[in-house]
Amino acid sequence: MRTFRLTRPPRSFEAPPAALVRMRWIAGGLLVLMAATFLVARAFDHTYPALGFVRAFAEAAMVGGLADWFAVTALFRHPLGLPIPHTAIIPRNKDRIGTTLAAFLRDNFLIPGVVARRMRRVDMAGAAGRWLANPPGGDGRLRKGAAGLAAHMLEAFDQQRLGGMVKAGIGQRLRALDVSPLLGQALTAAIAEDRHLPLLDGIVRWGARLLASNEDMIRAMVHERSGAMMRWTGLDETIATKLIDGLNGLLTGIAEDPEHPLRAKAEEGLAGLAHDLVHDPRMRERVAAVKAEIIDNPAMQRWLDGLWEQARGGMLRIARDPDAMLAGPVGDALRQLGATLQTDPKLRATINRFVRRAVVGMAADYGDGIVRLVSETIHGWDANTITRRLENAVGRDLQYIRINGTLVGGLVGLGLHTLDVAL
């Protein structure tokens, strides 16, 4: 199970949102208004009996408003700073709230079966296809934001370690690849379609150039291996000339005559090589040994390093300029992919199945870790931080409870006073 690092939020003061401050003023102002109305009605109700209804409304409204103020305040802190029992509910139960929230996530969202059922209704491939086929216009904030995030991630990674991982992955793939049968099959196909003829012609031309550039060496070898009599009579020079002329004539004949016997022998040799590459274990072992030497060669390792740097540079250029990417050949390919995803149900189903399995696998592998992360993170927060955040998130709606309590209390008091007068 992968571990997660807990992060503690800063304890700096978080100012309440303006909407919450406004609703507090409205609820508090309404309570003050009811108190002033009660005092005025109480002062004159003996002179104007009808003010008794107003007094009853205002009195009950004050009671309802104060009761709901107490209830709302008790969620987040002790009212008036008094340690009244069963107040400051959220700070006192912070750990229990974190545990309960984590259990809720685990039981309702992060169970593999639940994730699988929900993912069956999600058409990720179709959504991706529509987005790729018709990228959003305007300033493209989503596209630019995603591209910027990708660029930052590429730059933030340990390039030496990441490059080593990429190089090691490529090396493992190359080592696992059995190239001998591939070479044999490619050579067989080339012989069948006469695509080996340019190779033979190239070998003949190379032999002719090699012979022409090494005539002096051949003459020197013949001269050194000849006896004193032959060197004295000049026969060594004659033999060397005849040898060079014969080789030149042979190469010229092979080059000019498509039916030359040596061409047939060469083709037989190539066909035999193709067969051995596919079926001869010893040949395959030799090819594998040569492949391993090439992979382990420092020059090859430097080439792999350069390949990774080129790929990384290309990805960074694309990420930093997504508009240019979508305007070029890559953009055309992505739009074509988007159209294909929308019109090919089999491909879309395959991708959706892959995404579903990946998400279900993540839920199975990391679900417990995510649940523990949520619980331990909330446990690690200080009580004031979580109280401020929750109050800032839902406090505006809770102020409506105070307003409703004031008005409903007033109506109840008015109704009771009316019944008292009537009876």
Could you characterize the architecture of this molecule?
It is a single chain. By secondary structure, this protein is an all-alpha fold. Helices cover 83% and strands 0% of the residues. It has helices at residues 18-44, 51-76, 89-92, 94-108, 112-120, 124-133, 141-156, 159-176, 179-192, 197-213, 215-225, 228-233, 235-256, 261-279, 281-296, 298-320, 322-327, 329-343, 345-380, 383-422. Helix 2 runs antiparallel to helix 20 and helix 7 packs antiparallel against helix 16 (298-320). The longest helix has 40 residues, at 383-422. The chain is rod-shaped, with a radius of gyration of 43 Å. Residues 1-12 have low confidence and may be disordered.
Mean pLDDT: 78
Radius of gyration: 43 Å
In sequence order, what are the helices and strands, one letter per element? HHHHHHHHHHHHHHHHHHHH
Structural class, please? mainly alpha
Oligomer: single chain
Largest sheet: none
Distance between the termini: 74 Å
How much of the sequence lies in strands comes to: under 5%
Q: What sort of overall outline do the alpha carbons produce when their principal axes are compared?
A: rod-shaped
| Helix count from the secondary structure assignment | 20
Extended strand count: 0
> Low-confidence runs (pLDDT<50, min 5 residues)?
1-12
Classify the helix fraction into a percent range.
Answer: over 70%
